[in-house]
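Retro notes - structure team

What went well: the batch runner handled both jobs without manual restarts.
What didn't: labels got mixed up in the shared folder, which is why I'm recording both outputs here explicitly, each with its sequence directly above its tokens.

Job 1
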Amino acid sequence: MTTLRQIINETSWADDDLESLVWGEMGRQGRAMLQRLLECSMETELTQRLGYAPHQRYPQVHTNYRNGYYRRTLETTWGVIAGLRVPRTRD
């Protein structure tokens, strides 16, 4: 929930604009916001699963390592989100 709140706070949309963005036709800005939300959510999920934040070096804690990102295209009911960065691990 923190990620969603952080993304909403970073935008300069009024509440009316945000409501129409979520429930109405989603334009290019809306898809960009959804892409950022998905990327942050996946990064947060990976951090929780691994038990450490990116760039931390604790060899006794590491059992798996981050291994960059790969790009995917996601088709949604609001349109295509191209270039979605999906984090990956070595395992």
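Job 2
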Amino acid sequence: MIEEQEFIKLYKQWYNPIHRYIQSRGLSPEISEELTQDVFMAVWKYLDTLNTQYNVKNWLYTIAHNKVIDYHRGKAWKNDTCLPISEDGHFAIGPDEMYDVIEPVHIALASMSERERNILVQTSLFGYSQRGLARTYKVTTRTIRNNLASARSAFKSAYREEVAS
């Protein structure tokens, strides 16, 4: 287990290399900065589980790699839904057009099974981890991942059908 002072040392030593690694994955400096901060927030969160006898470098790069993958997954999901979402994750429409977007979303969500809807909302809107949901539902992470893929597919189909009508 490492102490706060050791975390500060770790942060100073690895911040720039991790930031460069993330930016080398084709992300903007702003997104790279944000994801680098997310890496070190995760490090801080799991600080008590870190055993410094193991390779800290591998641990940090694994977290960074996973943050980049999560970012791209989220971006692909947002782009693939046909929802007007800006790069910063907010709806890119005015208040007058909001109802035209919200009604099809509501109808699409209502057409899904309760479990699909819950998993989709808990991960996409509230940021719950798949691992945490697996514990909640008492299933494997793979089952949650499959349920989430199915939920996303069901939502996309229902949303596109509703928008087309």
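One thing worth noting from job 2: The chain has a mean pLDDT of 80.
We'll revisit the folder naming next retro.
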